[in-house]
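Q: Hi! Curious about what DUF3509 domain-containing protein looks like structurally. Here's the sequence.
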Amino acid sequence: MHNPFDLISDAFAPRYRVNLSIERLDGSIMLTLSDDSGAVAKRLISEAQRNDPVRLQRVIDSIRLGLAIEQGENPLEVLAALTRDPRQHRFTATRVAT
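A: Let's find out. The predicted structure is below.
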């Protein structure tokens, strides 16, 4: 059984502080990623996304892509890295590594 909260935390820590909070009565959670400069990303994750490992991985990958683009990464290289094997991805300080 997968633990969505661990998957989310493992995907972004230790580079970012991960805060997950219950946002709505429908089971949605708010993911906030922050660093020393403050919040760098916020994303509402629905209960359906949270409870489906494939959908949750897509959410994680889309956040990684957005962060990489904001940091000046080449979007095509980031997408290529994300589509190789989603279980092996780790977001590092300035790049996506496999």
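A: A fun detail: Residues 88-98 have pLDDT under 50 and may be disordered.
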